[in-house]
UniProtKB/TrEMBL annotation:
<keyword id="KW-0645">Protease</keyword>
<dbReference type="InterPro" id="IPR001563">
    <property type="entry name" value="Peptidase_S10"/>
</dbReference>
<dbReference type="InterPro" id="IPR029058">
    <property type="entry name" value="AB_hydrolase_fold"/>
</dbReference>
<keyword id="KW-0378">Hydrolase</keyword>
<protein>
    <submittedName>
        <fullName>Carboxypeptidase</fullName>
    </submittedName>
</protein>
<dbReference type="Pfam" id="PF00450">
    <property type="entry name" value="Peptidase_S10"/>
</dbReference>
<feature type="signal peptide">
    <location>
        <begin position="1"/>
        <end position="21"/>
    </location>
</feature>
<keyword id="KW-0121">Carboxypeptidase</keyword>
<dbReference type="GO" id="GO:0006508">
    <property type="term" value="P:proteolysis"/>
</dbReference>
<dbReference type="GO" id="GO:0004185">
    <property type="term" value="F:serine-type carboxypeptidase activity"/>
</dbReference>
<keyword id="KW-0732">Signal</keyword>
Length: 495
């Protein structure tokens, strides 16, 4: 048995396209290779058998290999359905690897963390009983310079690191992947988190118009602005409902609000934001002193900050100030709160100041994610390399010009009656806050003619809502139901 296995491995290695990557002397990346293994997992009480393929697929430019993207592809093997859905997953940054959703959300493995998402040792992974692998195959993709993905030495950085460059080369890569895996008949879905939402929003139209690949759904997890302008007083006002959520979590609201469930309080904060705070900010210096004080008092009621703090900040409190000051004072513990997830608390060198010293949630996450992904890919899946797994890779400067990803997603929906969109947001996310996400949803299609194909789901957690065990279950179920509802079921694609 050893000799045939040796010959097979030799043939695989000979077939690899080995190109020196921009990762240091002596470190090579096989630009076209894969390793497969068989597994099983129990999802919602039922056994699911699957194959996992950890590989690298080339990126081409003018028919030359310019980079290799490392991916992990999960394919269910105990069903034979050529029309089985395919979910293509991206994280964000830009510059972030696919590790976050890969080992904490939709895949068959999740981190060893506690029920609220905090790291525990020993580090590692365990089965995900809520994975959507029961209803869809999944591929997690690392864009150039993230994870183990690398450029070819001497390749032009301008091909990759920008809003539209990123979308263009990834559309070609996705098209090639679908062809290689014989998935053209599959209903296809994109899911992206954070900057990954900019990526998948743009990919929806690029795939349709340049690769003639039509999708069934796009899922935006903790979305960015996706090219929808909400600057100035809109941006300032939209922070308030997030302040309410974070203050509620840390029990800093008045007793009458604190005694309610969060989803009962948030509509009040949203109504105040839309109907009172935003109109007041539009007056600027013309706002009367009496009205200014009234707005400050009400903003204080919904934020956990004082009315004087709102007045001192001209009714436009920055998020960095909020993270530093919500729990400032001996009676509140003099903690800071996290940016991406304000449930997490931090300790600064001094209580005074305008912003926290560090992001308390990110250091906690890196604690558990980094050892887990390295162990899992190298030891369990057999992806052996001397390359460093880039949790955050060198992709800057990033060209943000010409970001029309939101309008392009609307156009993709208009062109494709099958295409549905769902947004998922954590209420305690202070970086891409949930009310901004709602605002983007409202303005994605201002005509309102496609609003029945747009949906929003909120969760009692932060940017990575799936780290909280209860939300891992509910968020996966929302993805599962979205996929199943977005399958055409024989219905024609027409208006």
């Amino acid at each position: 048995m050893l000799r045939p296995l040796f010959l097979l491995c030799s043939l695989v290695l000979l077939a690899c396209t080995c190109v020196r990557a921009q990762s240091g002397p002596g470190r090579m990346l096989d630009m076209d290779t894969s390793f497969s293994s068989q597994h099983s997992v129990t999802i919602q009480g039922k056994t699911v058998k699957y194959e996992v393929e950890a590989g690298v697929q080339p990126v081409y430019h003018e028919d030359k290999i310019v980079a290799g993207l490392q991916y992990t592809y999960y394919r269910r093997t105990d069903v034979t359905d050529p029309n089985r859905p395919l979910l293509i997953s991206f994280n964000g940054g830009p510059g972030s690897a696919s590790v976050w959703m890969h080992l904490a959300y939709t895949g068959p493995k999740v981190l060893n963390i506690d029920t609220e998402g905090y790291p525990v040792q020993p580090y590692g992974v365990s089965d995900n009983p809520f994975s959507v692998l029961d209803v869809t195959d999944i591929v997690f993709v690392n864009p150039v310079n993230t994870g183990f993905s690398r450029m070819v030495e001497g390749a032009d950085r301008k091909l990759f690191f920008g809003v539209n460059q990123d979308i263009e080369y990834l559309a070609d890569w996705v098209s090639n992947f679908v062809s290689r895996k014989n998935r053209w008949r599959s209903p296809k879905f994109l899911i992206g988190e954070s900057y990954g939402t900019t990526r998948v929003a743009g990919l929806a139209l690029e795939l349709q118009e340049s690769r003639w690949m039509y999708l069934n759904g796009v899922i935006l997890v903790s979305p960015t602005e996706i090219g929808i302008v909400r600057d100035g007083i809109v941006e300032a006002a939209n922070r308030l409902p997030y302040f309410t959520a974070a203050a509620w979590y840390h029990q800093q609201l008045p007793a009458d609000l604190q005694g309610k469930d969060l989803v009962e309080v948030l509509p009040e904060a949203e109504a105040f934001t839309r109907d009172e705070l935003l109109p007041a900010l539009s007056y600027g210096a013309e706002l009367s002193d009496e009205r200014r004080r009234a707005i400050a008092a009400k903003a204080a009621r919904y934020s956990g900050l004082s009315a004087q703090e709102w007045l001192d900040n001209n009714l436009m409190v920055e998020t960095s100030y909020f993270w530093k000051h919500l729990l400032r004072g001996e009676e509140r513990g003099n903690f800071t709160v996290g940016r991406l997830d304000s449930r997490y608390k931090g300790i600064d060198g001094r209580a005074a100041g305008e912003r926290p010293d560090y992001n308390s949630e990110l250091t906690s996450w890196l604690h558990s994610f980094t050892p887990a992904i390295n162990y899992y890919l190298r030891d369990e899946l057999g992806f052996k390399t001397d390359l460093q797994y880039n949790m955050f890779g060198p992709v800057h400067p990033w060209d943000r010009s010409g970001d029309q990803t939101g309008p392009n997603l609307r156009k993709a929906m208009a062109e494709n009656p099958y295409l549905n969109v769902m947004i998922q947001s954590g209420y305690f996310d202070g970086a891409t806050n949930y009310y901004d996400a709602k605002y983007s949803l409202w303005h994605l299609d201002p005509s309102g003619r496609m609003k029945d194909r747009l949906s929003f789901k909120g969760y009692y957690s932060g940017h990575m809502m799936y780290l909280r065990r209860a939300d891992l279950e509910s968020a996966n179920q929302d993805v599962r139901e979205f996929i199943m509802k977005s399958l055409p079921g024989g219905k024609s694609a027409k208006y």
